[in-house]
Specification:
The protein has 9 helices and 18 strands. With 367 residues, the protein is of the alpha+beta class. It folds into 2 domains: 207 residues, no CATH class; 134 residues, no CATH class. The protein has a 6-stranded mixed sheet. It has a 6-stranded antiparallel sheet with strand order 13-16-15-14-17-18, covered by helices on one side. A 4-stranded antiparallel sheet has the order 5-4-3-12, with no helix packed on it. The longest helix has 23 residues. 40% of the residues are buried. The structure holds zinc ion. The site of zinc ion has 8 residues, from helix 1.
Amino acid sequence: MSREYPRRCIYCRNDRPPSKEHVLPYSLGGDLTTLSDGTERPTVCKGCNQSFSTIDQALAEQFLTAISRAAYTKSSSHTTRVGGSHFHYDSEENLWLEAQLVNEMRSHLPPQLHHVKDYFNFFGSREQDKDSFVKVVDSRQVTGRLLRTFIRTDNADKATTPRVVQHRSNDLYVRAKTHETGIQFLELLDRQWNRIKEQLQENKAKHSTIERPSIEAHLKFRLNDTFRAVAKITFNYLAAKKGTELALSTEFDEIRSYICGDNVIRSKLVKSGQLAVDTRFVQMRRDAKPIIPTRAHAVALFYDPPALVGLVALYGEWSFVVQLGHIALKEGLFFDAHEFSIDRTGNKALEHTELAKRMRRSRDGST
Ligand SMILES: [Zn+2]
């Protein structure tokens, strides 16, 4: 690292050492970071970086982009999932099971153990799911953390049986009708775990493998967080492309505090049919033609004095316009663009000639 650190963070304005902030969230595939070579290395401090993980997650899992993300990410690539709650009805057992929508829009049952009347019933999508499930529950039971597993009581009508679910490789949740029945279930599981583990390992416990479950999807959107994450992509790009000094200009204080979540207007009086989302800085576009012709992701800066505007295209179909602010710059009209793969295999500046060619093709209707 260079000697000049710590430097001013482009978000909180405190002098801090820089951390690795992805210009486009890593969960969408973006592999360009604010520490990547070839940029002026703007500083995003660790604290700001960590606080952004919830808005990055909203964009990746809790918006329409989440569906494209699951649809277009190859099974062989990093694991993706659509956020929200998804269920599969098992008619044989008359139970609702937890399900997930993952890469290439495959439906899948995360490993889960249900308490049915007087026995435990394990469900998964693959034979080997049992082993990873036993490992995770076991490590939490041994350290006493099993009893503190997060209990979900949303979609209580689908909690036909209390269950513990391994929803990520190292994380569990419980779904139950009420918090109280969730606690009772956890205490029972904690007491009987050694016996259940043995039965699972010796294949004596009741278990079913369902490869392709049908799914009832309950999506959950976090619109304000999603829009803040979109604004952050353009602001990160502005800082990486045009430098920290420009990013720190007071002209960008409003969007800076919007991205940090300090001045988001959460409308309490929303008419039916309207979305309760603050659209002062970010607007979503649903035009026939894409804002930047790409099949992957692209971000661009467009300076039309005095307005500095950011453009974002995700998965080649979701387009956003970001009003970064009004500012007087020495450099007149400019346009910079960058393209990112969706599978973390690269990013590159999008040359003007290439962009013009694509715009022409897009305009002529041949994609
Ligand atoms: Zn900071």
